[in-house]
Each structure stands twice: as structure tokens, then as C-alpha cells.
Amino acid sequence: MAGEKSFHIDPTAIVHPSVTLGEGSSIWNWTKVREGVKIGRHTNIGQNVYVDFGVVIGDHCKVQNSVNLYHGVTIGDRVFIGPHASFTNDIYPRAVSPDWEVVPTRIEDGASIGANATIVCGVTLGKNCMVAAGSVVTQNVPAFGLVIGQPAKLVDYVNIQGRPLHHNLQGPAPSDEKLHTVFTVPQGDMDLKAKSRVRVGVVGAGVRGREHLRILDLLKNVEIAGVMDPNKQWATEAAMQYNCPILNDISQFVGQADAVCIASPLATHAEYGVFLLDHNIHCLIEKPLASTEAECLALLAAAERNNRVLLAGYVERFNPAVRQLTEILAHGNHIYAVDVRRMSAVNDPRTSDLDVVLDLMGHDLDIVLSLIQSPVTSVAAHSVRPYSARADDYVTALITFANGSIANLTASRITQNKVRELRLTTDLGYITLDYGTQELLIYRQGAGAIERSKSPKIGSYSMDLSMERVLIRPGEPMTRELRHFIEAVRGKKPPLVTGQQALDNMRLAWQIKKSCEPPQP
After folding, report:
1. d(CA 189, CA 340)
2. What is the pLDDT of residue 495?
3. H/E element holding 325?
4. Could you give the domains of the chain?
5. How far, in Å, are 263, 427, 499 from residue 250 at the CA level?
6. pLDDT tens by residue, 137-165
7. If residue 146 lies in a helix (H) or strand (E), which one and from where to where?
8. What whole-number distance in Å separates Cα of residue 76 and Cα of residue 73?
9. Closest by CA position to 38, among listed 18, 24, 8, 11
10. What integer pLDDT is reported at residue 189 of this predicted model?
11. What is the pLDDT of residue 353?
């Protein structure tokens, strides 16, 4: 054994004498390390690991139980490899083959590989990248990239801690500064992790604001800090119902609230949000985020410079059926087409200051962009305005994406039936989701092909299909959203819907609205 005797080798391990093992490193039970292997300092090789001849492993690495590392693999420093991960070294393997040729694989410093992942030979995993559990990597992974699926696809970037950045993949890669930003509990919030109650205020005592107050009143460890609304009657009624103070001005939240939910008219979002963020108050802002791109950017900048949470209020993201659908499609399945219908009656009280694109279709734009994660290449939309000369009441939009996916969205507030449906055609099968009932169904084609019926009287087609009803624990999306907001405020997790994602949603909504405009003479 090369090197000094300042390491640990379990008696059951089989380690070739030519192996170089660095100071402070360990090799545990039933592991086999073959000739010529080089292992750096303070590296831990778990139980039942196989390390083929000539493999190089750097310093401060963790190779968990039952990992297979084959000849041709080079591993940098500070690399984590989860249990049962496997590497290959031959692109065209056969049991007996005269042309066996090793194809090298390189894992660069700081990379993390999840449990049961497979790394197909010939790839490079970039510095500090992250491979999700169970993924099959067939292509190079960029530095700080997060890949998921079979085959693995880039879905996000992570920071130096490995935490997702919720980065817009349609734009350039994250800046070096952003990649190396360490997420911490914001300054002044160190007590919030252990604080028994988080003080949350509400701006707006209308329909949406009352929903916030109702749920906040039910949440444990939350204290309603106050409600503010220019309509004094609404504010008084809400304050009496939920036994909380009435605040007359946005500035009165300073020192009174740790966080605020903004459910006021769209025109006030940026003004209120920037003020609160600049006074170290976390914000949940109902969608749409703001009236203009400049206002959205001002909110993003205020959250960043003050290290505050900015959660965009796209409540359907917290629908249990949507969360389950997102997990199902997180393994790299391709979405060919999406069809969405969201329709309401004309007397819906929540449509006063918004057209149907910003009010109803906004939810579905957010979900479609989060699922497809590909740049938009074209938008074609049409609308009708039977009840308003200024705002669209019924809109249908066709969106195409760079990866070949298409999405057809319809939103209406003049339909005498409430419809909330999402349908996807994917390589996994045909998927239907009902937002209201939270029912999620997957139709898969069986082994049998499509065949004409043998009955000459019917003369129709039959298809061997199976239908899977996904079991979902039901729950109120807004309750889940507000619980998530409190967890984000306490520093336990980043916002699920970021300000940047909300801005991306708005940009697409503005494209749709522009497409609906009649051509200029």
C-alpha cells in the first residue's frame, strides 16, 4: 500500500497493494479497490463499492455504498456520489468483443451525483453540477447545472451550496456572482427560524385579501400583524372578523410585520412591494406581479438588494395535482402538446381591474412555462370583447417552443360553466388534470397496436389502453402557498415561484395581448 499509514481500511475490504490512499481517507466493509487506483486525502469510500483499476479519486470526496466506478473514470475534489450510482466505460458493450475500448469519463470538482444515477461513459460533469437521483446522464453537464431524468436534461442551475436558483433557461447562464452567492437567513431574520410566531400583514381587504386573512388566521405560529385597505368599511369588517389591527398607511407595517401579503389592485403592487422590501419586509405579491416590465424589475432589484423573500402569487403551482404532475414529468419526459381551458362566468367578482389574459390565463402561462422550460418561438392569439371595449373577455392563444412543443390556451370569463382543465400529450402518455377536483389521470397505450374491430357491423377502431388514476392527497392550494411563504420567510426554502419567473410569465402575457390587437391600418 502506497502512502503513509494514516488512513483506515476495513478488514473485509480487498485493496490492491499498489493503491495510493491519502491521509485521513477510509475504505469500508466489503469494498474492492483494484490495482493502480489513486485516492486523495480525507476521502470516504463506503461499503460494497467497486473501484476498477486505474480510477482516480480526488480529495474530500464521498463515495457512498454500492457505487461502481469503472476503468476510465476520473473524479475531482469534493465530489459526492450517492448510493448505488454506476458508471460505464464502453459505448458498445458486448459479453465477448475484440474491439473493447475504454471511453473516459470526468467528474469535475464539487459535483454531486444522486442515488441510483447512471453516468454513461464519455461525458464530463462540470464543476459543482448536480445530477438528480435516478437520472441517466448521456451528455456533458455544464458547471453548476442541475440535470434530471432518463435521459437527463438541464432543468435549472444551482449555487455553490447546491440549492436551485430557479433560473430562466431561456436566457444566458447565471452570473458567476449569482452562482457563488450563499443563501443564508436574511440579516435581521436570524430569530425567525426559532421565533414562535411570524407576524404577517395583508394589504387589501377584498375577495383575495379576505382569503389570505382566513388562512393566516388558521395557520399555527402565525400572527396577523394588521390589514390595510383604502376602503375603510372593508378594512374594518376584516379587522373585526380576524381580530387584527387596522393600518391606515403602508408605512405602518414597518416594525409591525415580518412579512406582508399584497392583494391590492395591480397598479399598487410595485409601489407597495418596493417600499416593504426596502424596509426589510418579505413579500408575497398576488399575480400579476406588476403593471409594467420596469415595475417588475424594480421589485426584483429591491428583493435582491435587501435579501428579502419575494414570492409571486401563482396559487395553482401549489395545487396538489400540479405538484404531483411536476414530479411525474421531472424525469425528462418530453411534452409534445399542451391544451388548457380556464373559463368562468361573466359575474366573477375578481375580474374588476384585469383582462382575462392577466387574470385567468396567467395561472396557465406560469404552469406551461414551468413544465416545458424551453424558449418561446412564436405566439398567435385572438380575442373577443362582448362586454368591454377596453379588455379582452375571451382569448385563445397558440404558443410554440424551441424544443418543438406547442401549447394551446383558452381563457374566458363569459362562459356559463366553470372549467379548469389541463391536458398534455407526452412520451409518457396522455395526461389530464382537473384543477378543481384535483384529479390527475394518465392514459398509456398498452402492448397491443391500434386495430380495426373484427365486427363488420361496428367497423370502428379499438386501442389497448390503460388508465392510471394518480393518488393525490387533496389540499387547498392557497393554504399550501401561505405555508410555503412562511417557510421561505423563516429561511427554510427558496420561493417556489420567483420574481424572475413572474416576469417571464408577464412577458409572455404581454406578447399574447399584443397579438390580440387588431392590425393597424
Report:
1. 40
2. 94
3. helix 320-328
4. 198-308 (3.40.50.720), 317-475+503-516 (3.30.360.10)
5. 13, 50, 21
6. 999 999 999 999 989 999 899 998 888 88
7. strand 145-149
8. 10
9. 18
10. 55
11. 61
Q: What SS3 class is residue 179?
A: helix
Query: Which amino acid, residue 423?
Result: R
Question: Which of 198, 318, 184 is closest to 256 using CA atoms?
Answer: 198
pLDDT of the residue at 185: 45
What element of type H or E holds 305?
helix 293-305
pLDDT in the model for residue 330: 82
pLDDT beneath 70: ranges in the chain:
1-5, 98, 182-195, 346-353, 388-389, 446-465, 520-521
Per-residue pLDDT reduced to its tens digit, 40-66: 999 999 999 999 999 999 999 999 999
Asked if 371 and 326 count as a contact pair (C-beta separation under 8 A), the reply is yes
CB 441 within 8 A of CB 429: no
Judge whether 159 and 179 are in contact, CB under 8 Å: yes
User: Which DSSP symbol is given to 25?
Assistant: -
Q: How, if at all, do strands 394-401 and 406-412 pair? A: antiparallel
Q: Kindly list the distances between the CA atom of residue 264 and the CA atoms of 250, 298, 366, 441, in Å, as whole numbers in the listed order.
A: 12, 18, 20, 36
Residues 231, 234, 237, 241, CA torsion sign: negative
Q: How many CB atoms lie within 10 A of CB 94?
A: 9
> Which residue has 387547498 as its cell numbers?
476
- Provide the pLDDT for residue 395: 96
> CB of 498 within 8 A of CB of 312?
yes
CA proximity to 79, closest of 50, 96, 56, 53:
56
**What torsion do the CA atoms of 477, 479, 480, 484 make, to the nearest 10 degrees?**
140
pLDDT of residue 520: 67
The CA distance from 444 to 421, in Å, is 19
- Give the up-direction half-sphere exposure of residue 375: CA atoms within 13 A in the CB hemisphere: 6
Specify the 3-state DSSP secondary structure of 377.
Answer: strand
